[in-house]
Amino acid sequence: MARGPGSLAGVARRSTFVNLARNALRPSYLPVMLRKIKARLRPPNRDEALAWAFEHAESVESFGESLAPELWAEANHWADEFEPQAQSILSTIGVPLGGGGHHRLLYFLTRLTSPATVLETGVAAGWSSAAVLSALSTNGSGSLWSSDFPYFRLENPERYVGCVVPEELRDAWNLYIKGDRSNLAEILPKCGAISLFHYDSDKSYDGRTFAMDAVASHLTPECVIVCDDIDDNTWFRDWVLKRGGAYRVFERGGKYVGLVGL
Ligand SMILES: C[S@@+](CC[C@H](N)C(=O)[O-])C[C@H]1O[C@@H](n2cnc3c(N)ncnc32)[C@H](O)[C@@H]1O
């Protein structure tokens, strides 16, 4: 591929730089952007985290089938129908929005636990949001509270947040997009006791520590907690070993998801 200033790669790099600079000037963006840069300078213990996750991983299919085979089959059916619809929306948008969470597992857990309140951090295109909202709709009750921070390398990134979430499911959705620190301060006093919590936003060790400390007193005693990308650093391992009790680890596409509460 040509690499000169006029090449496609050169144009993409320039527009990413322009978007970063523009977004940094917007109110509330700069502090979150600076925290992310700082987190990237810290060694994340990724190899150690990956080895631990690999060693503890179990099959998500066996987990689902052993707990509730009919709901696991329903989750698979929902995901098989939803995936092509979401992919078709994403292909028309044409900008990379990162990978989604474990939407099949989240649909299953939402159906299994019938939560009144679900909290998630990290929305992006909205795979996880769509999974939870679809399952809540089938349950006939419950609401989803989501905290996101738009991808600041894109131009006007707010327009892409939750783009795969079907319009008819949005009544049960409360979406906040100013970053976890600001969003959780607004959400937590309003949302009620949380019985399903999906963490998929700031993957740094500090970001995870901040969010879990912030939400801890708002979780029901039976709350199911799902953490995505636990192989990015040793936060999940350190947290579950410190709190004691059971935990589970599932592999998905070479990445790992952690779960407590079941
Ligand atoms: C991996 S994506 C989430 C994927 C989503 N759960 C899904 O299933 O489609 C991570 C999202 O978290 C957002 N994010 C990153 N840092 C954040 C922060 N400090 N506060 C809130 N959201 C953040 C990213 O911009 C991105 O939108």
Brief overview, please?
It is built from 10 helices and 8 strands. With 262 residues, it is α/β, with parallel strands linked by helices. Helix 7 links the parallel strand 2 and strand 3 (143-147).
Question: How would you explain this protein's 3D organization?
Answer:
By secondary structure, the chain is an alpha/beta fold. The chain has a single domain (44-260), classed as 3-Layer(aba) Sandwich (Rossmann fold). Helices cover 49% and strands 16% of the residues. It contains 10 helices and 8 strands. Strand 5, helix 9 and strand 6 form a beta-alpha-beta unit. The protein is globular and about 50 Å long. Mean pLDDT is 91; it is low at 1-6. The site of S-adenosylmethionine has 23 residues, from helix 7.
The count of DSSP E runs of length 2 or more, i.e. the number of strands, is 8
The tally of structural domains comes to: 1
> Can you identify the CATH class?
Alpha Beta
CATH architecture: 3-Layer(aba) Sandwich
Work out the radius of gyration: 19 Å
- Report the portion of residues in β strands: 15-25%
Largest sheet: 8 strands, mixed
Fold topology:
Blueprint: H1 8-24, H2 29-40, H3 46-56, E1 57-58, H4 60-67, H5 69-93, H6 103-113, E2 117-121, H7 127-139, E3 143-147, E4 173-176, H8 180-191, E5 194-199, H9 205-215, E6 219-227, H10 235-243, E7 248-252, E8 255-260
Parallel strand pairs: 1-7, 2-3, 2-5, 3-4, 5-6
Antiparallel strand pairs: 6-8, 7-8
Helix pairs in contact: 4-5, 5-6, 6-7, 8-9
Bound molecules: S-adenosylmethionine.
